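Case study 2.
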Amino acid sequence: MRALLTWGRAGADAVAAGMLAVMFATFVLQIAARYVFGWPLGWTVEVCLTLWLWLVFWTCAFCLGPRDHVTFDLLAASVRPRLQRAFALVTAGAIVVALAAALPATWDYVEFYRIKRSPVLRIRLNWVFSIYLVFAVVIVLRYLWEGVRLLRAEPDAAPGGEEAR
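Prediction:
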């Protein structure tokens, strides 16, 4: 299982790196076309914005672990491990409930954009915004797993044990 997770992480990182590389190349092309050749390309802005949106949600869902995010844990760090674990369980539960409850409305909203297309490349906007659904489902699954891990831990164990990103 670890080998599969390692392979999956490497693949997710490669996809993110590819998106970043294409976004950077498109950005450089946009600058060169506009300021060197005096020929602005409208599609480059659309590609950069779409890739940025996908890059943010993709990396948050697949490439970053909980410790890679900024946290405000002054209160949690000042209490005993058992209460830290309770805080972590409440947090995981709140994230799961909030995102899971929002999934049907999110699905409807993304599907509503089926009728709209991007201005230049004419990409259906439900494809552009579908990454948020992927992100939400993955985060729900990750925090469900985190909740299970916390419930199975020793009673006095602090949260934040080693986990598969």
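The chain has a mean pLDDT of 92.
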